[in-house]
From TrEMBL:
Species of provenance: Roseicella frigidaeris
Protein name: Methionine ABC transporter ATP-binding protein
Protein family membership: Belongs to the ABC transporter superfamily.
Entry-linked PANTHER family: DIPEPTIDE TRANSPORT ATP-BINDING PROTEIN DPPD, OLIGOPEPTIDE TRANSPORT ATP-BINDING PROTEIN APPD
Localization (cell): Cell inner membrane
Record key words, sorted: ATP-binding, Cell membrane, Membrane, Nucleotide-binding, Transport
Length: 326
């Protein structure tokens, strides 16, 4: 059997700053198989983007991967040269960034950028490549794609630029896409259209997709599996429907409770009390302790990341649900 597209094992990425060591990613593990979608969620500063950058080998000083492994189709990416890694990024692994200008070249017309992308991967004529580029723009909801192809990135609005960056990533048909909140700024209809295109790509091309977001409703509609991050660690992981239906970790319970659509009308929106702890001075034991309604003395010890039910993992010694041995 071929290995899964991506295995992240005990990944740790730290930033060595003047103020101290920021443990941005601290023991993150997950697997994404061919054609599967993993939703990576968590509040601001929980380490989602740094996880994405680490997978692509794009962590800059003062940051550094200090532990763990990233296996792409079974191959440890840490063993690749910078050049081999660059080739992989241009070809088999793509990232859609929060900022589309990290993908787009400001001095090239959109058609040039898109046609080159197609020609790099498919043996087709220039005219056919142009056709595919035009279709790709249409699929992400860009009106008059033929005309827009001749524009430069600065002639697009921010939202349109983001759609072009997404269209380029989809055109690549890479084996793995890491999408870092690319649709947050877009309106709901366009977002839905883009999510549908991403899902289609996964189903048709076997692309494995990691979709980073803080929006649980996006994950609910798009992902097969979910990984919830808190303070640099994955605190819960499992099939998306099961996790949203019966979360184990108190933080996941809080996140779900704070989604407006899940709230009863007229009731104040529930919020998780307290603040995200600073990653510089994390308390010993469970990082969620100060905010957790279920905390007890044992939580002063670091909780293990344990499989509480088949395929259902949580980093908590006192999770929700009846199947828990006390
Ligand atoms: N260059 C850097 N130097 C120091 N600390 C950094 C650096 N980049 C990120 N961090 C820290 O790493 C932590 C995780 O950041 P990250 O960007 O991954 O969060 P995130 O979950 O993507 O948040 P958001 O939802 O706001 O995008 C944060 O505490 C951040 O301050
Ligand atoms: S380990 Fe303890 S403090 Fe942490 S989430 Fe579980 S119950 Fe709460
Ligand atoms: Mg981020």
């Amino acid at each position: 059997m071929s290995p899964p597209t991506l295995q992240v094992r005990n990944l740790r990425t730290h930033f060595f700053t003047r103020a101290g060591v920021v443990r941005a990613v601290d023991d993150v593990s997950f697997t994404v198989g061919r054609g599967r979608v993993l939703g990576l969620v968590g509040e601001s500063g929980s380490g989602k983007s740094v996880t994405g950058f680490s997978i692509l080998g794009l962590v800059d000083p003062p940051g550094r991967i200090v532990g763990g492994q990233v296996l792409f189709q079974g191959q440890d990416l840490a063993t690749l040269s910078e050049e081999a890694m660059r080739r992989l990024r241009g070809n088999r692994i793509a990232m859609i960034f929060q900022d589309p200008m990290m993908t787009l070249n400001p001095v090239l017309r959109i058609d040039t950028q898109m046609i080159e992308t197609v020609l790099a991967h498919a043996k087709v004529s220039r005219e056919e490549a142009r056709q595919r580029a035009r279709d790709a723009l249409g699929q992400v909801g860009i009106p008059s794609p033929e005309e827009r192809l001749r524009a430069y990135p600065h002639q697009f609005s921010g939202g349109m630029r983001q759609r072009v960056a997404i269209a380029i990533a989809l055109l690549h048909k890479p084996d793995l896409i890491v999408a870092d909140e690319p649709t947050t700024a877009l309106d709901v209809t366009i977002q839905g259209q883009i999510l549908a295109e991403a899902q289609k790509l996964c189903a048709e091309s076997g692309t494995a997709l990691i979709w980073i977001t803080h929006d649980l409703s996006v994950v609910a509609g798009l992902a097969d599996d979910i990984a919830v991050m808190y303070a640099g660690k994955v605190v819960e992981q499992g099939p998306v429907a099961e996790v949203l239906d019966a979360p184990l970790h108190p933080y996941t319970v809080g996140l779900i409770g704070s989604v407006p659509s899940r709230n009863r009308r007229g009731e104040p929106l529930r919020q998780i009390p307290g603040m995200t702890p600073s990653l510089l001075n994390l308390p010993a034991g469970c990082a969620f302790r100060a905010r957790c309604p279920r905390a007890e003395a044992r939580c002063a010890e670091p909780p293990p990341f344990a499989e509480y039910r088949p395929g259902r993992f949580a980093r908590c010694i006192h999770p929700h649900g009846e199947a828990i041995a006390a």
